[in-house]
Write a structure and sequence with these properties.
Blueprint lengths: L1 E3 L15 E2 L5 E2 L6 E7 L6 E2 L8 E7 L12 E8 L4 H4 L5 E12 L2 E8 L3 H4 L8 E11 L5 E14 L1 E2 L1 E8 L8 E12 L4 E4 L4 E8 L6 E7 L5 E7 L4 E7 L8 E2 L3 E3 L3
Parallel strand pairs: 5-12
Antiparallel strand pairs: 1-8, 2-11, 3-4, 4-6, 6-9, 7-8, 7-10, 8-9, 10-11, 13-14, 14-15, 14-18, 16-17, 16-19, 19-20, 19-21
């Protein structure tokens, strides 16, 4: 069993980003002969990153060593996937690359090991631009070591596929007046915001279609009543007619750069 990790200035494991990932075909390292394949982040599910909470999505991959090397000889080799975008794989690790955290490799044959662990992202330090909400490429740093220490060979390799990074979104709701007379107007307001990785706060998300949904008291199902478009500041507002007791909420279906968001229902008593 081989366990690897890395620590940052704050004394925590640092590394990669929380994201959507797909399996990546094998990437062959010509300089080392090491193959890194079957890379999967977060089980293929989307992972959304906010402004302060650390995310540690799961990571699995397979390492195949060249002839003459054994997965049981932990001091002879290393392979570490990472994510990068907007640059080359060779520069990507140090030029804003998103690294693995702690991971462990288990030999399945003398030359093959299956590895599992996690990526690590602290958005306060690892993300600094809205451009980071994009599809990241998959790379890996592979290394062979001489007996007794000393680097023998090193190769940066690429893998097919990509990892989608999105901003966390939030939506609020307020329905008033409460209570209200049946047949009178209910005004439903709210705000759609998303993570701003430059300001490290949530800012208004403009021009997005958001669904107004209603759940009648005693029911467990919400239905969409209408849609509204968020203003330049992310504000939401519409008016409906009071007909029955129940809960009102806004629901945002997400976008190519931002996750979904649904407010908790706001109850209105209709009399």
């Amino acid at each position: 069993m081989k366990t690897s990790g890395r620590t940052g200035a704050a004394g925590v494991v640092v590394g990669a980003l929380a994201l959507t990932a797909i399996a990546a075909p094998a990437a062959q390292a010509a300089g080392t002969g090491i193959t890194v394949s079957q890379v999967v982040v977060n089980g293929g599910r989307s992972v959304i990153v906010g402004t302060s909470d650390v995310k540690e999505p799961s990571l699995t991959f397979r390492v195949t060593l060249p002839v003459g090397y054994s997965t049981g000889d932990w001091s002879a080799w290393s392979a570490r996937p990472f994510l990068y975008h907007g640059t080359t794989v060779a520069a990507g690790l140090d030029d804003g690359g998103l690294r693995t955290g702690i991971y462990t490799c288990y030999p399945t044959t003398p030359r093959i090991a299956d590895c599992e662990g996690s990526l690590y992202i602290d958005p306060r330090y690892d993300l600094d631009s809205g451009n980071d909400a994009t599809t990241w490429k998959i790379g890996a740093l592979t290394q062979l070591w001489k007996p007794g220490g000393g680097l023998k060979a090193e190769q940066y390799v690429t893998a097919s596929g990509g990892v989608k990074v999105k901003r966390w979104a939030k939506v609020t709701v307020n329905a008033s007046p409460e209570p209200v007379v049946k047949g009178r107007a209910i005004t439903v307001t709210g705000s759609l915001t998303r993570a701003d990785w430059v300001k490290h706060t949530y800012t208004g998300y403009a021009g997005k279609s958001v669904s107004l949904q209603f759940r009648k008291a005693g029911s467990s199902v919400y239905s969409t009543v209408r849609t509204a478009t968020s203003s330049s500041t992310g504000a939401l507002k519409t008016t409906v007619t009071a007909s029955a007791d129940g809960y009102w909420r806004w629901s945002f279906g997400g976008s190519s750069t931002s996750g979904t968001a649904t407010a908790a229902g706001d109850y209105v008593d209709v009399r």
